[in-house]
Amino acid sequence: MSNSVSNAVFRKELPLVINTRPVERAASLTEHLQSVGFEVVNMPMLTLQPRKVLDTDIDTMRHWLAGGYQALVIVSPTAAESGLNVWQALVTEECKNIEDPSHDKSLSALLPSPIIAVGDATAAVLQAANKSVLQPIIANNEGMLAMPEIARLQADDSVLIWRGLGGRRLLVDTLQARGVNIDSIAWYKRMMPESAANDYLKWSQDYTSHTAGFIEPQLKPIVIISSGTAFEHWVTAVQQAKASIELAFELADFRYIVLGVRLADMVASQQLEYWQVADLSPDTIAAAITS
Prior knowledge:
Elements: E1 17-19, H1 23-35, E2 40-42, E3 47-50, H2 55-65, E4 71-74, H3 77-97, E5 115-117, H4 120-128, H5 141-145, H6 148-151, E6 158-164, H7 169-177, E7 181-191, H8 196-211, E8 222-225, H9 228-242, E9 255-259, H10 260-268, E10 274-277, H11 282-290
Parallel strand pairs: 1-2, 1-8, 4-5, 4-6, 6-7, 8-9, 9-10
Antiparallel strand pairs: 3-7
């Protein structure tokens, strides 16, 4: 079975699934959907690029390590990996500055605040580094807001977020409305892959040749969208293809699986058919498709 744009197989009995997640986060979902019988096309609409670590980021990390925040929220495995690297560098630096190696105030001995990991993959990165983490029952903004460690935050408390550039606005907006101070470090930025629009165009041409531009409603391809930025990039790719080929598909020629309320609102505003899911686990996605 195919998991690439260029050699997708088209089956009549099941809808095709398009996985737009970044390459490094797509594999387990694609493999699971294939194992239960779906043809899956990997068509990333996001690529994650590291950002330069700034002096202000280091200052923020030092402030966290000194106990300046009531919680640390880590929203992705990429953010976890990047933050851990800087954390360890600061630990190493501190240890060099401590004359007594057994000094119990060294950074290596500190857990300055509860660490909240969003999603199992994020938690796994931290656990592999022997860090104790908490997780929301549901791995999204709403799930985090329901956690006791977040729910009890009051005015003038402070939270640090490790993240990518953009995203997680519901959490930030809700806490700020409560008077909580929010600082964040954006370890990476989300970009549209250079090949994304061309990959979609080529897939669209191939798919159109098999469907003659007509898709039965129950067999509309299903597009998995995990963020507002990915949806914006998807819209760009579809619109560019419409300007290039005859019988080009419209946004409404697809059905969507979207993560969370905010993204559901974005898709609904364009009168598109969608399922809203609470998390992006393979079982959750498969259940939504087959519901």
